[in-house]
Amino acid sequence: MPILPTLPASIAQPSVLGLQFIPLVTDIFFGMLGLIAILIFHGSLINHIIMRFELKTQKNLGLGQYNRVFMHFYASFFFIALVHICEIILWCFFLLGLGLMDDGLQALLFAGSCYTTVGFVSDVLPTGWKSLAFFIAFTGLFSLAWTTSVMIGMTDAYKAAWNLKYGRRDLGDS
User: Residue 161 in contact with residue 59, Cβ under 8 Å?
Assistant: First the structure.
């Protein structure tokens, strides 16, 4: 005979300030699990892209191949965009894997809406899983901030190549 059904509701479904404790802890656990997995994925790929860009850029600058620096710059942006799209798809698979959504397209749109924090899709998560949207949004915010810092460094290399190509020795000229 199950123990929980015989317990009073206040013990079986404890709540803190009106929030059911067990669903909240479950939501936080799976939200943090997804957030950490996506940020590890993001960091691994972003670091690979930036390291490749830096190696290629140093080589190309040394050989005076400034147009190649520009090409690597734009190719890196393309790959960074693909990383973000893959992260949205991973959240989609996470939502489908947890059985929170049945429709893959709806899960993809919801994950993308939360990840970008645009919020164009209504909250379609079942009761008890509503705060998972926060973790998807946190992942997007952290990933985009990380990407921004990487892009600033890449822009400095692009600017250096531009200045060298057009004979500007003072990097403040452009």
Answer: no
